[in-house]
Amino acid sequence: MYDATTKADYYLLSFSVFEYRFRLNQTGNAATLFSTTCTFFKPRTEVVTFFYTGSTGRFYNIAFTRSWVEKNLLFSSAAEKEKVLQFLNNETSFLNWIDIVPDAEALSAAILQQLQREETPGNNRQWFVDTLHHTIGHFFHTAFADRRLENYSSLNNKDYAKVALVKKRMLDNLQKPFAGVDAMLK
Asked: What angle in degrees, to the nearest 10, is found between the helix axes of 78-89 and 125-145?
């Protein structure tokens, strides 16, 4: 994916389900937060991210090509199909949404269960094809419906690192009154 000498025409749709534990005060009281995200990556895209110590979770990466999208995804309109194909050609390296995959925790558990069966995933091929096809289609349909494809501003890795740091600071201080955006940026 990162070797510039290798042709890279595969896009990745990665969805993850994570559980975080946060200490709320000095006495040890804690809260559990769940995070489900879905991230679309173009070829050769590097992404900065972070995880809290003790986080648990899973990533599922689905690889596909533009020609696969053209042949296999069902669109609700010609305009939706055109917008998705146009998006695949633009400069945006990645998109990230929280809670876009319906029933992400259940889907994660079902995929893991299928992968852990004694049979190879090839024996469950149609289940995987149907499930992953639905997940990719849902992602693009939702992104089109709420106009994210046309209104999205791409962040570079440096910007994304700043956003991740602000998110971390906010989550680290859930037990305190909100200090304001300016304090989060320092």
From this structure: 90
Count how many domains the chain has.
1
Structure pTM? 0.69
Cα(141)–Cα(134) distance, integer angstroms: 10
Q: Please count the other Cβ atoms lying within 10 Å of the Cβ belonging to residue 109.
A: 13
Dihedral of the CA atoms 98, 102, 104, 105 (nearest 10)?
Answer: 120
Would residue 174 count as lying in a domain? Answer: no
Residue 159 lies in a domain: no
Domain residues for the domain of 150 are: 10-154
Residue 186 near residue 173, CB atoms below 8 Å:
no
**CA-to-CA distance for 44 and 88, rounded, in angstroms?**
14
Q: What is the pLDDT of residues 50-82, one digit of tens each?
A: 677 778 888 888 888 888 888 888 888 888 888
Instruction: Report whether 4 contacts 46 (CB < 8 A).
Output: no
Structure confidence by residue, pLDDT tens digits, 29-58: 777 877 888 888 887 777 666 677 778 888
Q: Is the dihedral of CA 112, 63, 37, 156 positive or negative?
A: positive
- Measured distance CA(121)–CA(116) in Å, rounded: 9
Question: Are 13 and 133 spatial neighbours (Cβ–Cβ below 8 Å)?
Answer: no
Residue 169 falls inside a structural domain: no
pLDDT category of residue 154 using cuts at 50, 70 and 90: low
